[in-house]
Design a protein that fits this description.
This protein has 422 residues and is an all-alpha fold. Helices cover 81% and strands 0% of the residues.
């Protein structure tokens, strides 16, 4: 084995280690924050915060935080530009667009919550808007750091800092007061993300005198990659939004508690897919195609996800009772279905990356399009029965269907030569 091959192997191992360990760190911080907020708020307050987070995340993903960040990475890297040079002239215009995109989601929260006479409802709606704006900015800033070639240490700091601030602030609130309102927790999140964003922007490279990017080109590419990047089955928080809208904030609080445990597998799957996508793309030029890489990658992915799913499912009851309290024990049966569902959806991200690497992303998008309405209708019907467990069962069924269809697509599109563009 040559030195180059050996260093490549080590680079791949380090990348996998970074994905797994980074996913654990982020999920640990989110889980700790969820536990603390549950202790501070109770079931209903936890449900209100979960709805705020879900709507703000969905608002960001559907608008400027969707496919645009990936386009920023690609164009900055292609041109060798610093983000301040390539995007600086667009900051003011994009800020106005972001506000126009975020406000409707705050209105949706107010209408969904229903108690229009309470001032806290309107303030929580404002929190949805602010968190959506911060989410968009966070995704673009971290993507800009990647695109301009910043060190992984800078990227890691920018990525972890906002959630670290949130967790640390909630710990202080728990120690000092022992209780809080949903609005208070949301304000902590808004302030923490704002501070993290300030640090992230300061980590961007200084101007190098490069030419600015064309806005029309960025939007054109963002539109063409929108659906594949979005992943609406699990990328928009639709299940949580629908549970909150149909079944109420109490059911959503229990569902969000189970989701805090279940999201680790999905997050790891997404991170693994990001690492593997460029490898799948470059493997198409090899004489023997990408078959060996696909088999090895899927084996590694399953080897990471299956133990996590099994352990989290088995330990769901004691973890929820110890971490969240006995009031949240009704979330245990939800977790027993939701954890394997999210594990399969994490595996689905890797299968989508394989198809995208083969320039068959359109196939993955069509499968996603077909299953998303099925998921929405199933969740609405299940939530209407006032059983969040039924919602998790529906999500597991959709996840099984998605992985099955994508696996068939991967099997039938295995290229012996470079595949045609659909």
């Amino acid at each position: 084995m040559t030195t180059t091959q050996e260093s490549g192997r080590w680079g791949e191992r380090i990348a996998w280690l970074a994905v797994v360990s980074g996913g654990f760190v982020v999920q640990l911080l989110m889980t700790v924050s969820g536990v603390i907020s549950a202790r501070l708020l109770g079931v209903e307050g936890r449900g209100e915060v979960a709805l705020v987070v879900a709507l703000s995340g969905t608002g960001a993903a559907l608008t400027l935080g969707g496919s645009l960040p990936n386009v920023v990475i690609k164009r900055l890297a292609d041109r060798g530009l610093a983000a301040r040079d390539g995007l600086g002239h667009l900051a003011r215009r994009w800020s106005v667009v972001a506000v126009l995109c975020a406000v409707p989601f705050g209105v949706v929260f107010v209408l969904t919550h229903g108690d229009l006479s309470a001032s806290s409802t309107w303030w929580l709606g404002a929190a949805v808007v602010l968190l959506a704006l911060e989410n968009m900015a966070f995704r673009i800033v971290t993507s800009a750091l990647l695109g301009e070639g910043s060190s992984m240490a800078r990227v890691a700091v920018a990525t972890l800092l906002p959630q670290t601030f949130v967790t640390a602030s909630l710990v202080v609130v728990l120690i000092v007061s022992g209780s809080a309102t949903a609005l208070g927790v949301c304000l902590v999140m808004v302030g923490s993300f704002a501070l993290g964003l300030v640090v992230g922007v300061r980590l961007l490279a200084p101007r190098r005198g490069g030419e600015p990017l064309e806005e029309s080109d960025l939007w054109r590419l963002a539109r063409s990659t929108y659906v594949g990047t979005l992943g609406p089955i699990d990328g928009l928080g639709l299940d949580r939004i629908l549970v909150g809208a149909v079944a109420g904030t109490v059911s959503l609080g229990l569902y969000a508690t189970a989701g805090a445990l279940a999201s680790l597998a999905a997050m790891l799957g997404s991170g693994i897919a990001v690492v593997l996508l460029p490898r799948f793309s470059s493997a198409q030029a090899a004489a023997d195609g990408d078959g060996r890489l696909v088999r090895r990658s899927l084996a590694l992915c399953v080897g990471v996800l299956v133990p996590i799913v099994v352990v989290v499912t088995v330990l769901a009851e004691p973890v929820i009772e110890i971490a969240f309290g006995s009031a949240f024990l009704d979330a245990v049966p939800i977790a027993h279905w939701l954890v394997p569902a999210m594990g399969l959806l994490g595996l689905r991200r890797v299968l989508i990356a394989i198809l995208q690497g083969r320039e068959r992303g359109g196939t993955a998008s069509r499968i996603e399009f077909a299953l998303t309405p099925v998921m929405v209708v199933g969740v609405v019907l299940a939530a209407g029965s006032e059983s969040a467990t039924a919602v998790a069962v529906v999500l597991l069924g959709v996840a099984i269907a998605s992985v099955s269809l994508l696996s068939i697509a991967v099997w039938h599109t295995t290229p012996r030569t470079h595949p045609p563009v659909p």
